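agent> fetching stored inputs for the magnesium ion docking request
agent> found them:
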Amino acid sequence: MAASTGVHQRRCTVQAGGTTPAKRPRGRWFAGGTEDLTGPLAGIGDERVRLPHGYTNETELTAAGDVRKCYVGKDAKARQRVEAACLTALTTVLPVPAVVAVEGDATLMQLRPGEHGQDLLEQGHGEAVLLLAGQLLRRLGAVSPALVMGLGGQGEHVVHGDFGPQNMLFDLGRESVTAVLDWEYAHRGDPIEDLAWCEWIVRMHHPDQVSLLRSLFAGYGERPPWAARRQIMIEKCELFEERSRAEGPENARALWAERTQLVRTWHA
Ligand SMILES: Nc1ncnc2c1ncn2[C@@H]1O[C@H](COP(=O)(O)OP(=O)(O)O)[C@@H](O)[C@H]1O
Ligand SMILES: [Mg+2]
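agent> prediction call returned; pasting C-alpha coordinates
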Protein backbone atom coordinates (compact mmCIF):
# COMPACT_ATOMS: atom_id res chain seq x y z
CA MET A 1 0.00 0.00 0.00
CA ALA A 2 0.97 3.59 0.30
CA ALA A 3 4.31 4.36 -1.26
CA SER A 4 4.74 1.13 -3.15
CA THR A 5 4.68 1.30 -6.89
CA GLY A 6 4.01 -2.41 -6.82
CA VAL A 7 7.24 -3.01 -8.66
CA HIS A 8 10.20 -5.10 -7.60
CA GLN A 9 12.85 -4.66 -10.23
CA ARG A 10 15.48 -6.90 -8.72
CA ARG A 11 16.10 -9.11 -5.80
CA CYS A 12 18.38 -8.09 -2.98
CA THR A 13 21.85 -9.47 -2.70
CA VAL A 14 22.01 -12.73 -0.81
CA GLN A 15 24.21 -12.40 2.24
CA ALA A 16 26.67 -15.09 3.21
CA GLY A 17 24.97 -17.57 5.50
CA GLY A 18 21.49 -16.55 4.37
CA THR A 19 19.10 -18.58 2.32
CA THR A 20 18.89 -18.06 -1.41
CA PRO A 21 15.99 -15.86 -2.49
CA ALA A 22 14.29 -18.85 -4.04
CA LYS A 23 14.35 -20.69 -0.71
CA ARG A 24 13.21 -17.79 1.37
CA PRO A 25 9.91 -18.30 3.11
CA ARG A 26 8.22 -15.71 0.99
CA GLY A 27 4.73 -14.73 1.98
CA ARG A 28 5.15 -16.43 5.34
CA TRP A 29 3.60 -13.88 7.59
CA PHE A 30 2.95 -13.64 11.25
CA ALA A 31 1.04 -11.02 13.14
CA GLY A 32 1.61 -8.84 16.12
CA GLY A 33 4.48 -7.56 18.21
CA THR A 34 7.53 -9.10 19.74
CA GLU A 35 5.64 -11.56 21.94
CA ASP A 36 4.64 -13.38 18.80
CA LEU A 37 8.14 -13.65 17.45
CA THR A 38 9.40 -16.57 19.49
CA GLY A 39 6.82 -18.96 18.09
CA PRO A 40 7.31 -18.53 14.36
CA LEU A 41 11.05 -18.16 14.80
CA ALA A 42 11.43 -21.46 16.58
CA GLY A 43 12.78 -24.16 14.32
CA ILE A 44 13.25 -22.09 11.20
CA GLY A 45 17.03 -22.36 11.33
CA ASP A 46 18.72 -19.48 9.53
CA GLU A 47 15.74 -18.84 7.30
CA ARG A 48 14.38 -15.37 7.45
CA VAL A 49 10.76 -14.53 8.03
CA ARG A 50 9.27 -11.76 5.98
CA LEU A 51 7.59 -9.12 8.13
CA PRO A 52 3.97 -8.12 7.49
CA HIS A 53 2.84 -4.81 6.02
CA GLY A 54 5.87 -4.18 3.81
CA TYR A 55 4.88 -2.58 0.53
CA THR A 56 7.99 -1.48 -1.29
CA ASN A 57 11.01 -3.45 -0.13
CA GLU A 58 11.92 -6.84 1.31
CA THR A 59 11.86 -6.59 5.08
CA GLU A 60 12.61 -9.67 7.11
CA LEU A 61 13.28 -10.81 10.62
CA THR A 62 16.66 -12.48 10.86
CA ALA A 63 17.32 -15.55 12.97
CA ALA A 64 19.37 -13.29 15.26
CA GLY A 65 16.24 -11.22 15.94
CA ASP A 66 17.14 -8.11 13.97
CA VAL A 67 15.16 -6.61 11.12
CA ARG A 68 16.87 -6.76 7.73
CA LYS A 69 15.45 -4.34 5.19
CA CYS A 70 16.64 -4.82 1.65
CA TYR A 71 15.88 -1.93 -0.68
CA VAL A 72 14.51 -2.69 -4.12
CA GLY A 73 13.32 -0.66 -7.06
CA LYS A 74 14.16 2.75 -8.38
CA ASP A 75 16.65 4.82 -6.36
CA ALA A 76 17.06 1.99 -3.86
CA LYS A 77 20.53 3.12 -2.80
CA ALA A 78 19.44 6.71 -2.23
CA ARG A 79 16.38 5.59 -0.26
CA GLN A 80 18.54 3.33 1.88
CA ARG A 81 20.90 6.21 2.61
CA VAL A 82 18.06 8.56 3.58
CA GLU A 83 16.48 6.02 5.92
CA ALA A 84 19.77 5.19 7.63
CA ALA A 85 20.50 8.90 8.10
CA CYS A 86 17.06 9.48 9.66
CA LEU A 87 17.20 6.47 11.96
CA THR A 88 20.67 7.44 13.14
CA ALA A 89 19.84 11.09 13.73
CA LEU A 90 16.40 10.67 15.27
CA THR A 91 17.13 7.86 17.69
CA THR A 92 17.39 10.15 20.71
CA VAL A 93 14.33 12.26 19.91
CA LEU A 94 11.71 9.91 18.48
CA PRO A 95 10.83 6.20 18.75
CA VAL A 96 12.73 4.82 15.78
CA PRO A 97 14.71 1.58 15.44
CA ALA A 98 18.45 1.88 15.93
CA VAL A 99 20.63 0.97 12.95
CA VAL A 100 22.67 -2.17 13.69
CA ALA A 101 24.64 -2.32 10.43
CA VAL A 102 24.53 -1.41 6.78
CA GLU A 103 25.39 -4.42 4.60
CA GLY A 104 25.39 -3.69 0.88
CA ASP A 105 21.84 -3.10 -0.27
CA ALA A 106 20.37 -4.08 3.11
CA THR A 107 20.16 -2.29 6.44
CA LEU A 108 20.02 -4.22 9.68
CA MET A 109 18.04 -2.51 12.39
CA GLN A 110 16.72 -3.16 15.84
CA LEU A 111 13.36 -4.91 16.08
CA ARG A 112 10.89 -2.59 17.79
CA PRO A 113 8.03 -3.86 19.95
CA GLY A 114 4.42 -2.90 19.42
CA GLU A 115 1.33 -3.61 17.43
CA HIS A 116 1.04 -2.50 13.85
CA GLY A 117 -1.13 0.57 13.27
CA GLN A 118 -2.93 -0.97 10.34
CA ASP A 119 -3.93 -4.03 12.38
CA LEU A 120 -5.11 -1.76 15.19
CA LEU A 121 -7.21 0.28 12.79
CA GLU A 122 -8.81 -2.88 11.52
CA GLN A 123 -9.48 -3.98 15.11
CA GLY A 124 -11.42 -0.80 15.87
CA HIS A 125 -8.72 1.25 17.61
CA GLY A 126 -8.68 4.01 15.02
CA GLU A 127 -9.43 6.81 17.44
CA ALA A 128 -6.48 6.07 19.75
CA VAL A 129 -4.13 5.31 16.86
CA LEU A 130 -4.89 8.52 14.98
CA LEU A 131 -4.65 10.66 18.10
CA LEU A 132 -1.19 9.24 18.82
CA ALA A 133 -0.18 9.63 15.16
CA GLY A 134 -1.18 13.30 15.25
CA GLN A 135 0.76 13.90 18.47
CA LEU A 136 3.81 12.16 17.03
CA LEU A 137 3.65 14.33 13.93
CA ARG A 138 3.61 17.45 16.11
CA ARG A 139 6.80 16.17 17.78
CA LEU A 140 8.41 15.46 14.42
CA GLY A 141 7.58 19.01 13.34
CA ALA A 142 9.73 20.31 16.19
CA VAL A 143 12.82 18.42 15.01
CA SER A 144 15.37 20.48 13.13
CA PRO A 145 16.14 19.07 9.65
CA ALA A 146 19.75 20.09 10.24
CA LEU A 147 19.94 17.09 12.56
CA VAL A 148 19.67 14.68 9.62
CA MET A 149 22.72 14.52 7.38
CA GLY A 150 22.09 15.18 3.70
CA LEU A 151 18.31 15.47 3.86
CA GLY A 152 17.08 16.71 0.46
CA GLY A 153 14.37 19.23 -0.36
CA GLN A 154 13.57 22.61 1.06
CA GLY A 155 11.85 23.66 4.23
CA GLU A 156 12.29 24.04 7.93
CA HIS A 157 10.90 20.67 8.96
CA VAL A 158 11.61 16.97 8.57
CA VAL A 159 8.90 15.29 6.50
CA HIS A 160 8.66 11.51 6.88
CA GLY A 161 7.30 11.06 3.36
CA ASP A 162 5.09 7.99 3.93
CA PHE A 163 3.59 8.86 7.27
CA GLY A 164 0.63 6.98 8.68
CA PRO A 165 -0.51 3.98 10.71
CA GLN A 166 0.88 1.70 7.97
CA ASN A 167 4.38 2.63 9.14
CA MET A 168 3.85 2.86 12.90
CA LEU A 169 3.82 0.50 15.89
CA PHE A 170 1.92 1.24 19.09
CA ASP A 171 1.50 0.24 22.71
CA LEU A 172 -2.07 1.39 23.27
CA GLY A 173 -1.99 0.24 26.91
CA ARG A 174 0.65 2.89 27.51
CA GLU A 175 -0.85 5.32 25.04
CA SER A 176 2.41 5.45 23.17
CA VAL A 177 3.94 5.11 19.75
CA THR A 178 6.68 2.49 19.95
CA ALA A 179 8.06 2.96 16.44
CA VAL A 180 7.90 5.17 13.40
CA LEU A 181 9.30 3.06 10.56
CA ASP A 182 10.10 3.43 6.88
CA TRP A 183 11.92 6.75 6.55
CA GLU A 184 13.22 6.17 3.03
CA TYR A 185 11.12 8.96 1.50
CA ALA A 186 12.05 11.55 4.14
CA HIS A 187 12.92 15.06 3.05
CA ARG A 188 12.76 18.65 4.18
CA GLY A 189 9.38 20.30 3.84
CA ASP A 190 6.13 21.16 5.58
CA PRO A 191 4.49 18.79 8.13
CA ILE A 192 1.13 19.27 6.39
CA GLU A 193 2.44 16.82 3.78
CA ASP A 194 2.66 14.02 6.36
CA LEU A 195 -0.67 15.02 7.87
CA ALA A 196 -2.40 14.91 4.49
CA TRP A 197 -0.76 11.60 3.57
CA CYS A 198 -1.91 10.01 6.82
CA GLU A 199 -5.39 11.27 5.95
CA TRP A 200 -5.06 9.77 2.46
CA ILE A 201 -4.17 6.38 3.94
CA VAL A 202 -7.31 6.42 6.08
CA ARG A 203 -9.61 7.70 3.31
CA MET A 204 -8.18 5.26 0.75
CA HIS A 205 -7.71 2.11 2.79
CA HIS A 206 -10.03 2.53 5.77
CA PRO A 207 -12.96 4.52 4.35
CA ASP A 208 -15.24 3.40 7.17
CA GLN A 209 -13.01 5.31 9.62
CA VAL A 210 -12.93 8.70 7.93
CA SER A 211 -14.92 10.28 10.78
CA LEU A 212 -12.05 9.36 13.14
CA LEU A 213 -9.73 11.74 11.30
CA ARG A 214 -10.86 14.34 13.83
CA SER A 215 -8.56 12.48 16.30
CA LEU A 216 -5.61 12.91 13.96
CA PHE A 217 -6.15 16.67 13.82
CA ALA A 218 -6.85 16.85 17.56
CA GLY A 219 -3.53 15.10 18.22
CA TYR A 220 -1.70 17.34 15.79
CA GLY A 221 -3.41 20.41 17.26
CA GLU A 222 -4.50 21.87 13.96
CA ARG A 223 -6.76 21.09 11.01
CA PRO A 224 -5.32 22.75 7.89
CA PRO A 225 -7.84 23.70 5.17
CA TRP A 226 -9.29 20.84 3.12
CA ALA A 227 -8.23 22.38 -0.21
CA ALA A 228 -4.58 22.39 0.89
CA ARG A 229 -4.75 18.83 2.22
CA ARG A 230 -6.43 17.50 -0.90
CA GLN A 231 -3.93 19.24 -3.15
CA ILE A 232 -1.11 17.49 -1.32
CA MET A 233 -2.85 14.11 -1.66
CA ILE A 234 -3.23 14.70 -5.40
CA GLU A 235 0.40 15.72 -5.81
CA LYS A 236 1.66 12.69 -3.90
CA CYS A 237 -0.48 10.31 -5.94
CA GLU A 238 0.88 11.98 -9.09
CA LEU A 239 4.40 11.51 -7.78
CA PHE A 240 3.83 7.78 -7.27
CA GLU A 241 2.23 7.64 -10.72
CA GLU A 242 5.38 9.24 -12.11
CA ARG A 243 7.62 6.81 -10.24
CA SER A 244 5.57 3.89 -11.57
CA ARG A 245 5.90 5.27 -15.09
CA ALA A 246 9.67 5.21 -14.74
CA GLU A 247 9.70 1.68 -13.38
CA GLY A 248 6.73 -0.01 -15.10
CA PRO A 249 4.67 -2.14 -15.19
CA GLU A 250 1.67 -0.47 -16.71
CA ASN A 251 -0.79 -1.65 -14.05
CA ALA A 252 1.05 0.14 -11.21
CA ARG A 253 1.01 3.39 -13.16
CA ALA A 254 -2.67 2.90 -13.99
CA LEU A 255 -3.44 2.23 -10.32
CA TRP A 256 -1.86 5.50 -9.23
CA ALA A 257 -3.53 7.39 -12.09
CA GLU A 258 -6.86 6.02 -10.88
CA ARG A 259 -6.07 7.03 -7.31
CA THR A 260 -5.17 10.54 -8.41
CA GLN A 261 -8.54 10.85 -10.12
CA LEU A 262 -10.32 9.42 -7.12
CA VAL A 263 -8.84 12.02 -4.76
CA ARG A 264 -10.15 14.73 -7.09
CA THR A 265 -13.67 13.49 -6.37
CA TRP A 266 -13.27 13.55 -2.57
CA HIS A 267 -14.91 16.16 -0.40
CA ALA A 268 -14.10 17.34 3.10
N1 LIG B 1 12.47 -2.14 13.12
C1 LIG B 1 11.31 -2.79 13.02
N2 LIG B 1 10.72 -3.34 14.09
C2 LIG B 1 9.54 -4.00 13.98
N3 LIG B 1 8.90 -4.19 12.80
C3 LIG B 1 9.44 -3.67 11.69
C4 LIG B 1 10.67 -2.93 11.73
N4 LIG B 1 10.97 -2.52 10.49
C5 LIG B 1 9.98 -2.95 9.70
N5 LIG B 1 9.05 -3.65 10.41
C6 LIG B 1 7.85 -4.31 9.86
O1 LIG B 1 8.07 -4.53 8.49
C7 LIG B 1 7.12 -3.77 7.70
C8 LIG B 1 7.81 -3.27 6.45
O2 LIG B 1 8.85 -2.38 6.78
P1 LIG B 1 8.96 -1.00 6.03
O3 LIG B 1 10.19 -0.32 6.49
O4 LIG B 1 7.68 -0.25 6.23
O5 LIG B 1 9.11 -1.47 4.52
P2 LIG B 1 8.41 -0.99 3.15
O6 LIG B 1 9.25 0.13 2.68
O7 LIG B 1 8.49 -2.19 2.26
O8 LIG B 1 7.00 -0.59 3.44
C9 LIG B 1 6.64 -2.68 8.66
O9 LIG B 1 5.35 -2.18 8.31
C10 LIG B 1 6.60 -3.44 9.97
O10 LIG B 1 5.47 -4.29 10.04
MG1 LIG C 1 6.28 0.64 4.98
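agent> quick read of the result: The first helix runs from residue 38 to 41.
agent> awaiting further instructions
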